[in-house]
TrEMBL record:
<dbReference type="InterPro" id="IPR050554">
    <property type="entry name" value="Met_Synthase/Corrinoid"/>
</dbReference>
<keyword id="KW-0479">Metal-binding</keyword>
<dbReference type="InterPro" id="IPR036724">
    <property type="entry name" value="Cobalamin-bd_sf"/>
</dbReference>
<dbReference type="Pfam" id="PF02310">
    <property type="entry name" value="B12-binding"/>
</dbReference>
<dbReference type="GO" id="GO:0031419">
    <property type="term" value="F:cobalamin binding"/>
</dbReference>
<dbReference type="GO" id="GO:0046872">
    <property type="term" value="F:metal ion binding"/>
</dbReference>
<dbReference type="Pfam" id="PF02607">
    <property type="entry name" value="B12-binding_2"/>
</dbReference>
<dbReference type="InterPro" id="IPR003759">
    <property type="entry name" value="Cbl-bd_cap"/>
</dbReference>
<keyword id="KW-0170">Cobalt</keyword>
<dbReference type="GO" id="GO:0046653">
    <property type="term" value="P:tetrahydrofolate metabolic process"/>
</dbReference>
<feature type="domain" description="B12-binding N-terminal">
    <location>
        <begin position="1"/>
        <end position="90"/>
    </location>
</feature>
<dbReference type="InterPro" id="IPR036594">
    <property type="entry name" value="Meth_synthase_dom"/>
</dbReference>
<dbReference type="GO" id="GO:0050667">
    <property type="term" value="P:homocysteine metabolic process"/>
</dbReference>
<dbReference type="InterPro" id="IPR006158">
    <property type="entry name" value="Cobalamin-bd"/>
</dbReference>
<feature type="domain" description="B12-binding">
    <location>
        <begin position="90"/>
        <end position="212"/>
    </location>
</feature>
<dbReference type="GO" id="GO:0008705">
    <property type="term" value="F:methionine synthase activity"/>
</dbReference>
<dbReference type="GO" id="GO:0005829">
    <property type="term" value="C:cytosol"/>
</dbReference>
Length: 212
């Protein structure tokens, strides 16, 4: 098993060589899904360090962009170990970062885990208008709508998106989950979502429970 603290530290320091080396060695050990999720969590914790350093003025926008690219590379490296034995699709999910927010790191982690769990994910990207969530959910007959956002303004966009789903007569047929650093139980109630998560793996477990 790889040293999880080392992975977190290397990710936080944006040490690509060390991250890639550690994850490559990890994959060579034919890891279990459980261990791979632990490594994924370690990578997420490293990204939290990056966010803290950005808030402190140690990192800049360019560092955030690079961190996102590094995380994407890390996910792609370990993604094969997240594949379940069954490739059967268990449900359809429309996913996106809400209008006014351009952050996609958390969304991309959630997407990778959801796909590996058997969901058919339709990723709308970032800065997604409420009506786009509704139209896509209707088009693909989605079971779940997932909204991501980390800016304060995202809360209003999430609420507007739920309203858009209601106006399209879709709300009763879809479950809604919201995610991001800002989400809380109070915000979940405020926007009218069914669940919230600040942990991608836990969020996917919630969604799996909905489609069983």
């Amino acid at each position: 098993m790889v040293d999880l603290k080392l992975v977190t530290k290397a990710m936080g320091e944006l040490d690509e060589d060390q991250v890639v080396s550690a994850l490559t060695d990890f994959m060579a050990s034919d890891p279990s899904r459980e261990d791979t999720l632990k490594v994924m969590s370690a990578c997420q914790q490293g990204m939290s360090l990056v966010g803290d350093l950005f808030d402190q003025g140690e990192y800049f926008v360019g560092d955030l962009i690079y961190a996102g690219e590094l995380l994407t590379k890390a996910i792609e490296t370990i993604k094969p170990a997240l594949k379940g034995e069954s490739v059967a699709k268990i449900g359809k999910m429309v996913l996106g970062t809400v209008q006014g927010d351009l952050h996609d790191i958390g969304k991309n982690i959630f997407k990778s885990l959801a796909e590996s769990a058997g969901f058919e994910v339709y990723d709308l990207g970032t800065d997604t208008p409420p009506e786009d969530f509704a139209s896509k959910a209707k088009e693909v007959n989605a079971d779940i709508v997932g909204m991501s956002g980390i800016l304060t303004l995202a809360s209003n966009a999430m609420k507007d998106t739920v309203e858009s789903l209601k106006e399209a007569n879709l709300r009763e047929n879809v479950k809604i989950i919201i995610g991001g650093n800002l989400v809380t139980s109070d915000l979940c109630s405020h926007v009218g979502a069914d669940a919230f998560t600040t942990n991608a793996a836990e969020g996917v477990k919630i969604c799996q429970g909905w489609v069983k």
